[in-house]
């Protein structure tokens, strides 16, 4: 890993993503806290996530094909500064006592517009600045650092809210996102200069989809993640009321619970970074998701806060093992000139289930209980991964032979 930190471009990206990760964690924490404080409603908690995810998905669909034409560095800077600007709304209105729930929906909407531009651009930029044999370790460092920020963010956010109020959390997140944009300005432009034609949105989006004809297993991984993230979308808004109401916790304990998940992701990143690429990627990826679903069942049944902390750690550990292997799989197979649009299609497929989960999950939790919701989610994840494990197409996850991208071949397969 020493060689990676001698790479100035990687170091600047690493620092920028660290600042972005802290700001993003603070934003999730602050919005969740403010919505629940203003409304006390589980449905409101779920609907604010819908307000974030719906524009997120729409932007993924329509902006994705153009990300290979736009300068990736500038796209990331815009994303960071646009989000920072949106959070000036609660910073100004909350101390004056004029903040209302619809303001937070507006902030979530703005974040949903900007954030999906950052992730695929960043993934593609990493592949621009690192050789293929360094991608696994580079992704591990970036993912691990992001999880350190997510580890510190909720705990620090809980302490800041308890001691000083939510205003300081809002201020920190704006500064973090602004700093991330400044660091990215110091980085050189990406090397991708291959897109020179001005094709239509439909043509570019179709070309991104055509890649999945060459590697159909990647398409089915995306479909699988749609079901998995339906569960994630349902669970994420409910963690705050789960800790406060079901387990009788505090804001600080909610922060620790969220940090436990991030600590598990950090441990998984370190574990993945020091190991070679798995020989049986199918077993590692699908097995990690199955265990993650089993841990949801534990959250449904435990009445003890400390057990929930351990289960949250385990979920983070196995989630990041899957994520790193999945991202590396894409980076090793997607040609440079298609990365932006292919990553966008990937994220679009994976995130399509999140708003559905957030909407349905909040209704189930309000009508029945959060424990009933977690039980249903655990069953859904375990059943989905078990079916995928039996599907022969997922055997291709173990194929290390990278085929050459042939546009004519992809077009003929449509």
From TrEMBL:
Localization per Swiss-Prot or TrEMBL: Cell membrane
Its cellular-component GO annotations read:
plasma membrane
| GO MF terms, alphabetically ordered | transmembrane transporter activity
State the InterPro entries in the record: MFS_dom, MFS_trans_sf, TM_effector
Q: Where are the transmembrane segments?
A: 43-63, 75-96, 102-127, 148-164, 170-190, 211-231, 251-272, 284-301, 307-324, 345-364, 370-390
* Keyword Transit peptide carried by entry: no
Give all residue intervals belonging to the Major facilitator superfamily (MFS) profile domain. Answer: 217-414
How does this protein sit in the membrane? Multi-pass membrane protein
- Quick check: keyword Magnesium in the entry? no
* Keywords of the record: Cell membrane, Membrane, Transmembrane, Transmembrane helix, Transport
Superkingdom is Bacteria
Tell me, in one coarse class, where this protein mainly resides: membrane
Protein name per Swiss-Prot or TrEMBL: MFS transporter
Organism of this sequence: Neobacillus piezotolerans
Q: What is the lineage of its organism?
A: Bacteria, Bacillati, Bacillota, Bacilli, Bacillales
